[in-house]
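Moderator note: this is an archived Q&A kept for reference. The question asked for a predicted structure of one protein chain; the sequence and the answer are reproduced below.
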Amino acid sequence: MARTHARRRVRTRRRIRARLLTAAAGVTALLTATGCGAADMTKQSSPYANVGGTKSVTLSVQSWVGAQANVAVAEYLLDHELGYHVETVQVDEVPAWDALSQGRVDAILEDWGHPEQERRYVKEKKTIAPGGELGVTGHIGWFVPKYFADAHPDVTDWKNLDKYAKTFRTAESGGKGQLLDGSPSYVTNDKALVRNLGLDYQVVFAGSEAAQIT
């Protein structure tokens, strides 16, 4: 699970069910906007927001490729089919909920499960409404390079991971095997899984999905 050498890397990628979230007060049947407020990461409102007759939508873009693809499709359809000017802003997962509730963005097209934010904004404040599921059921998984699994087939059973802990040890993992995650802002249960399974591994964050894959 080494970050510096491909032969010692285990990568985790999280893929769970995603949902589209929109603000509670609607401007169209597809995307909706709500009241005012201020969110630190999106202080600047759209220059098109108060132009007479201009239809404008701001979409939150998450930092992984799948979310970026979702936004790209929505942006194209809103622009070419519905005549909207579309702005995008990249916001981490939890702050994006705040921005959506406060009207600084109009929709989050992919969410990985934030029960506290959902309870606060959807159930209690009712400033955000679910926009429906995306139709894709993702998967949580731990991955190793294929060549390593070919050479050591038993590594794909978590019960055998400790056998290879020394092989996957890095300077960042503190003497344990390294389990490489993406950004600390991503939703993941890896630390709890390692602890509850009693594995001799340490979760290390690459910083982003791109860095993790690389």
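Archived answer notes: The longest strand covers residues 56-61.
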